[in-house]
Amino acid sequence: MTIQISHDVTGVDGHAHVFDRSLALTEGRRYTPAYDATLAQWLGHLDAHGLSHGVLVQPSFLGSDNSYLLAALAKAPRRLRGVAVVEPGIAPAALERLRTQGVVGIRLNLMGKALPDLTAPSWQPLLGTAAELGLHVELHRQVEDIPTLCAALRARGCKVVIDHFGRPHAAFGVGHPTFRRLLEWGGDGQVWVKVSAIYRLGGTLEENLSFARQALPLLLEHFGPERLVWGSDWPHTQHEHQVGYASQFQWLQSIAPQPQQRQALLVAGARALFGL
Predict the structure, then answer these.
(1) Omega into 168 within 30° of 0, i.e. cis?
(2) What pLDDT, on the 0 to 100 scale, is given for residue 59?
(3) Can you tell me the distance from the alpha carbon of 197 to that of 205, in angstroms, rounded to the nearest whole number?
(4) How high is the pLDDT of residue 137?
(5) What is the pLDDT of residue 214?
(6) Fold type of domain 12-18+34-274
(7) What per-residue confidence (pLDDT) applies to 194?
(8) pLDDT at 129
(9) CA-CA distance, 270 to 193, in Å (whole number)?
(10) Which pLDDT value is given to residue 4?
């Protein structure tokens, strides 16, 4: 399938998930959904908020079986892109097939896991092929480990996407050394940050929002308008009863009150990263 690209980008939700309860779930998962999060529901949210495009990320509890994700992408190939989860030993041809089906990146969800050595020989074929195909590598890990992981990925020539502000500790503030080290990667030109999931920053809602408001100008200063991407993180797994899509859009407007800031988060960064 040839990927179709629309240049009429009014806004992009750069991070969301779809799934249903009938799917086989992985062993050792940290979360089990008790509801369905359908493509139709999510597209309804995009339409309601004037967003033209979206990026679906494979949920951790579905492991490396990306079939549901790929089926969703096939239903709206002009509008959607995907981020898959794959095993380190995946064949290059299989990774290439994913790319032709609308996958633009692979995700390493390392929360709650032992820190992998991405310089080890077992990782080199995957990372090398991802770099050759132009697929980014998305990191979901606490901020303390981000510099080490970034260094290993950039040594292989990979584009890197850092999830959810880098999962910093909001109560520590933007001056904390761990967040400052993350900012240093802004000069690399091949690292993006997802401005998403404010509720996952470890503090109270007030602390998290305060951190996000202070962090955004710093992220724009260090990474620039084409290296930041907004995501709703819909359906907000583990936080479903506290937040919703509308509240995420309101928080976006709160932390990015200036039109040029929202343009960077909703359009410029997404077009540069996802090829829209």
Answers:
(1) no
(2) 94
(3) 11
(4) 98
(5) 98
(6) TIM Barrel (3.20.20)
(7) 98
(8) 97
(9) 11
(10) 37
The dihedral through the CA atoms of 196, 197, 200, 205 has a sign that is: positive
Helices (H), the chain: 39-48, 67-75, 92-100, 124-133, 146-155, 177-183, 205-223, 245-255, 259-263, 269-274
Tokens standing for residue 123:
């990782």
45 — phi, psi (to 5°)? Answer: -65, -40
Below-50 pLDDT ranges, the chain: 1-6
Distance separating alpha carbons of residues 132 and 106, to the nearest angstrom = 13
pLDDT tens column, 56-87: 999 999 999 999 999 999 999 999 999 999 99
Tokens at 119, concatenated: 């310089």
Give ∠ CA 23-110-141 in degrees, rounded to 5.
Answer: 125
What is the residue whose two structure tokens read 């907000």?
Answer: 236
Token pair 């050759």: residue: 132
- What per-residue confidence (pLDDT) applies to 18? 97
Q: Count of CB atoms within 10 A of residue 231's CB?
A: 23
Q: Any residues with CB less than 8 A from the CB of 228 and at least 6 apart, and which?
A: 192, 193, 194, 195, 219, 220, 264, 265, 269
Q: Which amino acid is at 208?
A: N
Contacts by residues 36-41 (CB-CB < 8 Å, ≥ 24 positions apart)? 37/234, 37/235, 39/72, 39/75, 39/76, 41/235
Looking at the chain, how many residues does it have? 276
- Model pLDDT, residue 200: 95
R_g of the chain, CA atoms, integer Å: 17
